[in-house]
Amino acid sequence: MDIFMDRTELLNRAGYASKHFGKSDYNFAKQAVENLASAQIFVKIVHQKSNQLLIQARFNLLNYVYNGQTKQYEFSIPQAAMKMFAGKFYGYVNMEQRKKLPKQSQGARWLSNYAVGHQKGLNRFTDDYLLDFSDYE
Known about the structure:
By secondary structure, the protein is α+β, with helices and mostly antiparallel strands. The chain contains six helices and five strands, in the order E-H-H-E-E-E-E-H-H-H-H. The longest helix is centred in the first third of the chain and has 16 residues, at 23-38.
């Protein structure tokens, strides 16, 4: 499934409310799309009951092509990402609960996302690291 969107629509959908965007706005949008498309996800999915390795992969969550003539972006989701979503191999973030965390608590918000995305008992962070990360004294 591909999604087509021109530069102005992209900025409007991202929350920028202007009818007259300039070159710097479009450069910002281009850089944001490039950053998003360059982000990669590393996945290792093991079946809970059989402990069989189902997926081990590294892939982008988003592909895009920009047409300079039409000033339009074409976004697509790679097949590997579609397979992950189709099989529901991802953590669930309860956004209602997450929104209750204070906006100043970015560490708690990050930890909330981390917790649902990792197998119970397996993580790379020690208590000391988390205390240091959250500036807890």
